[in-house]
Amino acid sequence: MKRVLCFGLAMLASALAGAAPASAQSYPAREVRIVVPYPPGGGADYLARAIGDALAKRIGQPVIVDNRGGGNTLIGTEHVVRSPADGYTLLLGSSALAISPSIYRKMPYDALKDLAPIGRIGAVPLLLVANPASGIGSMNDLIAKAQAQPGKVSFASYGSGSAAHLAAELFQFETKVKLLHVPYKGSAPALTDLLAGRVDVMFSTIGPAQPHVEAGALRALGVTSSQPVETLPGVPPIAQAGVPGYEAAGWNALLAPAGTPKAIVERINRELLAILAEPEIREGLVKRGYIVEGSSPAELSALIASDTAKWKKVVQESGAKLD
């Protein structure tokens, strides 16, 4: 009886050992979902759909974009963390993964432990824009008005702890001014209220804001990168427009639930790097202000770790409050 039991257990162990490679070899056998932890209509939504459409063509299966906004990406990200680690649920992650641990006292997940990095997509400089009705037409105007009216000049962000929020916190720390934070559930509703004049300024992703700048509905004050952005001629880096040394750019990346088979992670990484090399994809992203920059899973893991340390220091030094 013992011999039969041992033989059965050995066969089961052998079967389980071979299951992961077989599953990876047959991947993908059905549709893949990319969860976007923001509402539809923002820059992340465009990015997921562009990458998703290209990925679908390469893997021969549909790729569905699933918008799950709210909680400054916590809701959508937690959904992915708790999804099966089989490669069929992916996350369009952002630098919020590195920022949120410094903003929230309790996190429903640990990005470094509960997610499997796949690859970076690129850097996302932000554009500081103002509603003309605010009377703010330049960086000096913003600083002067904020100094004269502490806590009165309002800035929108796409969530507490988002890259936009921390970019503004760093701005306040560097300029010694106090602004009023108005958080939203995504960039689209934040931009809508900025255009309506309900808030004064916003650190926005470039793509959604640029058409409104070109139409005169918004004024561009500066970009958060250390160098000018190719698609925004005449718009200086904030560091060159009155705040020396200022730099705060976010990023986007693909991730999966922790435990996703290494072969599947590597497969998606190869496809992602090939997609980012496609001229049409690169051109579309550059036009929207992205700096296209792929990476390996290991490089993305290192980026998340280093940015987590960086933003922790920013939060501590700026005195940003937990929401």
Automatic annotation (TrEMBL):
Coiled coil: none annotated. Gene3D superfamilies: Bordetella uptake gene, domain 1, Periplasmic binding protein-like II. Keywords: Signal. Pfam families: TctC (PF03401). Residues 1-19 form the signal peptide. Belongs to the UPF0065 (bug) family. This is Tripartite tricarboxylate transporter substrate binding protein.
